[in-house]
Amino acid sequence: MQRVSPWRSAARTDKGKIRRRNEDAFLDCPQQGLWVVADGMGGHQGGDIASQLIVASLAELPAQVGFDDRVNGVRTCLHWLNRRLGQELTLTAGCRDSVMGSTVVALLIKGNRAACLWAGDSRCYLWRGQRLFQLTTDHSLQQQLIDEQRMSVEQARAQPGAHALTRAIGASEHLTLAMLEFEVYSGDAFLLCSDGLYQEVSADGLGSALSHVSPQGALQQLFNAALDSPARDNLTAVVIRQ
To answer: pLDDT for 180-194, tens place per residue?
Structure first.
């Protein structure tokens, strides 16, 4: 008999108002305790292929193993995908001089243990005790300027190429994944999202949505706010709560 997950979740993606295609993808598997958002890059040269491949590959990982084995399985899968996207698919697509890749943020939960793995600027937020915490740190030039040059967010954002990624699946031969392990508590809620969503919704707006008792209600509030803005990029969000 399949065990009922204590976690409820809802997911949605939208191409936004400007982009002609949607290169985002998501995985929403509460029964497996696994949720993923991937934001493809490469435009017509395969960003959507990259994000969909990441989601499909992670969905196939075995669920009936221990938590540590599952985390290692996700990590191994992402490193394999990095090699495949960086070599085989790029050459097959005939775009030898460009990149076919994707950001990724994955959340695994089992019991009171959780792990978040990511590369790029898709994010994971935690809503706990009526406070919003950003668990991930963007792998972008903008964040690098903030960390290394001590620039303000506004100064870094104004720099040329500020949104360029410093890490992504398929972007370079060697992938360095970031990972955070932590304990979950009753009442916790999580948001995984692509940059197209969090760039259009303020931190207060994110927190207000995550305070909603229903994941579907939170998701609706997020997309109402995002699509009421210019929505220049694809929008993807997954909301998870007990």
So the answer is: 999 999 999 999 999
Query: Do the bridges between strand 34-41 and strand 101-102 make them parallel or antiparallel, or are there none, so unpaired?
Result: antiparallel
Domain count, the chain: 1
Q: Is the pLDDT of residue 18 over 80?
A: yes
Residue 203 lies in a domain: yes
Residue 23 in any domain: the answer is yes
> What mean pLDDT is predicted for residues 139-163?
79
pTM of the full structure: 0.92
Q: What is the DSSP string of 17-79?
A: TT-SS--EEEEEEGGGTEEEEEEEESGGGTHHHHHHHHHHHHHTS-SSS-HHHHHHHHHHHHH
Distance in angstroms (rounded) separating the CA atoms of residues 16 and 164: 20
Coil, strand or helix at 170: coil
Please give the helix or strand (H or E) that residue 141 lies within, else none.
helix 141-148
Segment (H or E) for 116 = strand 113-119
CATH of the domain at 66: 3.60.40.10
